[in-house]
Amino acid sequence: MATTRRINVDLPLVISALLLSAYGLAMVYSAGQTDVKTAVAGVYKSQAVWIVLGIGAAFAVSRASVRLIEWMTVPLYGFTILLLTALLVGLGSGGGSAASTAGWLTIGGHRLGQPAEFAKLTVVLMLARVLSQNRVTPRSMIELWKPMVVAGLPLLLIMAQGDLGTSIVFVGIFFAMLFWAGVSWQLLVLLGSPVISLMLGFDARIWGAWFLLLLALVLWYKPFLGEGLFVVVANVMMGILGPPLWEHMKPYRQARLLVFLNPSIDPRGSGYHVIQSQVAIGSGGWLGRGYLNGPQKRLAFLPEQYTDFIFAVIGEELGFIGVTVALALFLFLFLRVIRIAERANDSFSSLVAFGLLASWFTHVLENIGMTVNVMPVTGIPLPFFSYGGSFMLACWLAIGVLARVSSEGRGGKSGPLRV
Amino acid sequence: MSFHPNDVVRRGRAASVIVCGVLVFLLSAFFRAQVVRNEQWSLQSEENRLRQIPTAAPRGPILDRNNKPIAENVIGYSVTLLAQNEDTLRATLTRLRQTLNLTNKQYEDAIKRFRRDRTRPTVILADASFDAVSVLEEHRLEYPSLIIQSAPKRIYPDGEAVGSFVGYVSEISDAELANMSSAGYKAGQLVGKQGLEKQYEKELRGREGVQFVEVDARNRIVPNGRTREDITPQQGPPLYTNIDIDLQEYIHGLFGDSTAGAVVAMIPTTGEVLAIYSSPAIDPNRFVGGVSSAYYDSLNNDPRHPLYNKAVQGQYAPGSTFKLATAVIGLEDGLITIDSHMPDACNGYYYFGNRAWKCWKKEGHGSLSLAGAITQSCDVYFYQLGQKIGLSRLVAGGILLGFDKRTGIDLPEEKRPLFPTSVPEYFNQKYGARGWTAGSHELNMSIGQGDNAQTVVSMAKFYSALATDGSEPTPQIKHGPPQRTKVMNISPDQLVELRQAMMGVLAAGGTAAASAIKGVNIAGKTGTAQTMRYTKEGKPLYYAWFAGMAPAEDPKIVVVVMIPDVTFEGSGSAHFATKIIEHYLHAQANNTILNTG
């Protein structure tokens, strides 16, 4: 093109995203190569189309200035909330990446996408907007009511769909962005303490120890009296509520958590995914069983091999080396995004960059962690790898935003590039 | 907001550390799974995808003394199914039903087998016909969990001729499984059910092989899957027997379809069983893999009891064949010599107690020596000899001669003969302390009646001792070192005298004179024991016995024939026995000529 506009393309960012997408596409292709062919055999084609679409969308977004994005944040966020509400009132349908979670926007029988994937983006934008408006770093919980509402609303809507995994991502985004906004770690702990109490509530002694620690923290940090009281009371409540809440949990979710602690309690049922995934990964060894040749995948022992458990295919076929390469690519991308956040021109851009990082990071930790049984099984896809159009598109949109933030930021490593 | 560059850099560093830390933690989890525990997970992966399909080992062949086959294997086919659970098994069976015309019983049996052992493929047809296999091969794709294997099938070329001792093989039963699982037996395997097949099961079975197949998560077999090298089954070693299959067939032909009875032929010096036969014969081939109910019913309803092995299971009063035992005991005690006469001459009756004890010959034998009494089988002589010996000694002597014990022949079906165990306890227990007198038992037992019922093989063992130096050999079907026990305390000369007396049985005036064979000196003894059963016309039925040996000067063969429930006497059995002897010695002579010429 003969234009003379010069923009800086963040090459490390784009290249690492391209490499991850290519790696992911290769694995989606392999995941389809089972001995008895299923519909999965052809999904790599649509995945490739989604990648191309995603790159196109990223390019388009990178053309928009951050100010434009900031200006669009409120309507986008509102639209997201609308969609999520629509899902709840009847436009949703069953399906989704993991077997028992819903979340598809369906109109006239056509699946249009998973709004939750875009909600991750818009919540990041909205949180960035809200947090960047603060002149002073929040020192108390009251001051944090806005971000809490921004993250809490979609979280509740998605939890109401029964999608625990995605809601965890919002928690991750929320805390990470507060951290990036400079909220002190003590306040973050106090804020998160009721949830921790809830999880530790099953054992009175462990909870008791946690509670003493918390009291010490309250006395040291000296929040407002009302807040301090609130934190203490909330923790006590959660400690008491924990066990009955557990009793009321849906059995499949109970099973997932129990199976996480010991997969062999139900090897044919809830533990099946975890065990087969571990078998696939563990049998891969250093170099793997060879691309396309993983028996666990080939013979259909590995469930969800093209979506949530695609990383197990890497482990099986490409071994520890393949896993290391994938993790290294992620690490490179993450460090690059942190750098972009550091060098962003303004606090909104910086928060957006860091929020997107938090979203991916939560996905990677949870998804890869569950394949080796260091995290409980939740239906969270792996960015750039798991098959899924909405998510791939969302990931590349994020790359587009990041590229823009990077090019507006102060002196990245990337040189000027003529386009 | 605190976005002072220093703060941002500080937080950026913290974030980088957290990100690195978490990814390193994840990587370490992979290192643990993929490198440290690789072996364990690899094993589980192999277990997931590989199924071990047992391949049956051909059983060792059973060979006769000239290495002719008694039992061998031909190629058959088995159809088995790798079922994941009972529902899929039922679903597949229901579809197979139409393709294969499975009966309800086969359907239910398959489910039973699956419940018994889920780790092995479920046997649907242990012996599938070639037609069934062809049909299944056509429908291969519809049944991805079906396994068709070639499986050795047991056959017995001589069929009925060997049915009395070879036994058969069939699927292991629950009871057998409970007993034998420690020896590595698994549900669905074939085991020897009777006879030699059962007796030497552990030697004959060989070692099962393994064929590996690759299956997917739904237990469907992957065609040409990547598997391990198969382990080939190992055939069991051959079982060499002492049986002379020609003689066995000759005996089978001799009995034909009409006559019931039993024969044991053995080499007296070694106990080698040349032939053992029970008529009516059963065809072991029809029992292999499960007998048809029609055939089984026809056997079960036959009044001549073909399912009952008359050579080793049947217990029959030995009658006059036992007189030689009475004579041996008398000689051992020095009460008589071969020339001794008894006080009372035979006039057809012997008066004892308040009754007249009949001799079989109404007109009487007159006064006879022991030799004459054996030749003519005079009851009156042996009544008196029995009284001289006394009941206690008669029983004790019988026990020493082995009449109360199994012979130890290598057949699992052998029964212990009936014989008093002691005097007076046995009789007190049986008849009550006041319900019997020694006198009448002395008389009865001396002529082989009363509390005495012997198996045919037991009598063959006794006559083998008479044919040699008074040592009883253990009858052996499997070839092996002979085992002999000296049981008769009489001199070799006395044994020669007894054999000479028995030669008289087949000479003019003897009870089996009509059965004499030209050119062969046969010594023997007839026996006609009362069964206490009668024909519809009121004629008494007998156990017709003959125990013989030849050549009388140096016996090479002992033959005992017993024909139950007939109106003819022991001389009728002698006819069979002498023909058997003649056939055997003739064949031996021919062999010798062939071998030397």
Describe the protein in words.
- The complex is a heterodimer of chains A (419) and B (597).
- Chain A contains 15 helices and 5 strands.
- With 419 residues, chain A is mainly alpha-helical.
- In chain A, the strands form 2 sheets. In chain A, strands 2-3-4 form a 3-stranded antiparallel beta sheet. A two-stranded antiparallel ribbon of chain A has the order 1-5.
- The longest helix of chain A is centred in the last third of the chain and has 34 residues, at 310-343.
- The model of chain A is unreliable at 92-101 and 412-419 (pLDDT under 50).
- In chain A, strand 3 (104-107) and strand 4 form a beta hairpin.
- Chain B starts with a helix and ends with a helix.
- Chain B has helices at residues 5-36, 38-49, 86-100, 104-116, 130-138, 174-180, 195-199, 201-204, 245-255, 293-300, 323-332, 370-376, 379-389, 391-400, 425-431, 438-446, 456-467, 492-505, 570-596, and strands at residues 50-55, 62-63, 69-81, 122-128, 146-155, 169-171, 190-192, 209-214, 239-240, 261-266, 273-279, 349-352, 355-358, 471-473, 484-486, 523-534, 540-550, 557-566.
- Chain B is elongated, with a radius of gyration of 35 Å.
- Chain B is α+β, with helices and mostly antiparallel strands.
- In chain B, the strands form 6 sheets. In chain B, strands 2, 3, 4, 5 and 9 form a 5-stranded mixed beta sheet that branches.
- Helix content of chain B is 37%, strand content 19%.
- The longest helix of chain B has 32 residues, at 5-36.
- The model of chain B has no long low-confidence stretch (mean pLDDT 91).
- In chain B, helix 9 packs antiparallel against helix 19 (570-596), helix 11 crosses helix 13 (379-389) and helix 13 packs across helix 16 (438-446).
- Chain B contains 19 helices and 18 strands.
